[in-house]
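Cross-check.
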Amino acid sequence: MVDLTTKLVNILGDKTTKPLTSAFDMVVVGDLLRHYPRRYAELGKLTDLSRLEVGQHVTIMARVASVKNFSFGPGGKRTRTEVVVTDGTGHLTLTFFQQGWRLKSMEPDSLGLAAGVVSEFNRKLQLTHPDWEPIKETDDPTESSRLSRGIIPLYRATAKMPSWKIAQCVEMCLDAIGPVEDPLPPDIREARGFFDLAGSFEAIHRPRAAPDWQRGRDRFRFEEAFVVQTVFAQRRHLLEQERAAARPVVAGGLRDRFEQQLPFVLTEGQRTVVGEIGADLARTHPMHRLLQGEVGSGKTIVALLAMLQVVDAGAQAALLAPTEVLASQHYRAITAMLGDLAKGGMIGGADGATRVRLLTGSMGAKARNASLLDAASGEAGIVIGTHALIQDHVQFAELGLLVVDEQHRFGVEQRAALVDRAEVTPHVLVMTATPIPRTIAMSVFGDLEVSTLRELPAGRQPIQTTVVPAAERPAWLDRGWQRVREEVAKGRQAYVVVSRIGDAASHGEDSESETSSLVELHEELVGGALHGLRVGTLHGRMGPDDKDAAMNAFASGALDVLVATTVVEVGVDVPNATVMVIMDADRFGVSQLHQLRGRVGRGSEAGLCLLVTNSEPDSPARERLDAVASTTDGFELSRLDVELRREGDVLGARQSGVRSSLRLLSVVKDGDVIDDARAAADALVQEDPTLGSHAALAAAVEELERSEQADYLERT
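Predicted model, tokenized:
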């Protein structure tokens, strides 16, 4: 009996299966049937060639009039194939690059379907790299079983496995398959008017009318959301069964004393979030909360108040940071803010003070042993570190709270490593300075409650952002370096950020110039535009002592300019820095640029951010930079970022399990579907936490979790 787990080779044969496996990683029947059509061509609604408009997405049935290859580029090694087609009312050119084989596959007088976006070149309309599906003359469209349905599915395809060939393979599998188990329970399907799984495969692959494939697509979109949300619902259910020690606020404790000595008043948003977290910590159910906030919105203060609340209650807090630079920065900032409250057992320490310890992988043995001892004995109320905190030999007397900074850089398993090892389940607070649209938060961090800080603390200075097109206007870059000198002359400092340290760049065939490297740019600036200034460097390959020395020198004012890689992206706080020059800014993402920009304007003076680029004026890269320059609102930029990026990029590599499971669902656009699926998943898991009565759903959940686990193992 053929089912979704039957190997494709058993049905299609080895010759046909190989290109499907190599191009799309298809192995079993289910892989092929979940390769859904990208769009559909309706034979009764084909576009008239005489009525085409630029920018229009069209599907045409036409006959090849002529086909010709043209050579171009250095040595004539590149190929452009122009195929002129006609439907009797007009002509249209189909243009393909590096596909000279089409000279034989699209012979004159052959018939086919072409689908793509109409553009104009040399005053002639064309389709560039359109989908092309040949129609055999023996296949009379009025008699062909596939074409007679009137709607032709068009699949994501390759040269070796075109759309029509994939459609044939799908037909063979649909004809051969027997009963299939449906991951969507009957009551959930029926309440939404969905077909069962077999009917949905028929509807989406062999529709007889548009409502068929639309209904099938809606079902599979919901199913994708439902499986992901079931995973999160199970995680939340497990957390509900766990018990944590309540860590209520202690009146007059370190938290109250620290808040009273702050030289500023918390924003309304900070007070709200502090209240949410404080209430969570006071419960015997473990907190599991995501704190997202604008760059500079004061997340660290909020997290520190939470950590002190836990210390007051007799437990410890750990702060996990993704890099040594950020961990060291947190350590310096927190000990400075706490002052004598962080000098427990030391001369000058306040009554009831605690200790703050740093733990990183590259610390010297003496310092590391001291930190390990204080963590194990409980002397250190707060321990700050990198991945070194996750190691088995790190012990805490009583870990009450785990704070994870820049959550998107850690996997779920890494986060759980400390939690699972604790005798009493600790509360967990994860933070990100990259604002996340609500629908994405539900899909990527669905096991967390979400708190958001939107407003900036009083006194934060505005940041002017300017795109500097170095290739078009080199004088602008010269002026940029002059502005750096002017700021330094006023006693201020500047960052210069580069995308690479010193390796040869690899930019593909279209790149006309190399990106700036840290080593080369440092030498160039010291001997040229910034001659006479104190210019230092900071990058990830430096030893920990050298990193600390560079950062301390910049923070103390001993350096005027710091040329660095993105190690300064998050957490680095030097209020005297007012200028950020980002070289080859088009190499960075929107959120990364926003993070980097947030390093300036943190003191009493306004900030300046220069985005230096050699990208073309109308390119997508320039569009991204213009978007960053247009606003300093991180939440607005997050929305723009989502619009400009592909779905997989938005989810990120860390969520490759989720990403690979989403073929139709858009976490950007389908918020209503995700809401519906979340509610349905919660209700089902409350009734059947182990999915014992839903075997097909349990299998789908296991497969998704296995893909996430595989991703984690690859990264560790």
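The chain is about 40% helix and 20% strand. Residues 469 and 501 are 22 Å apart (CA to CA). Passed to J.P. for a second look.
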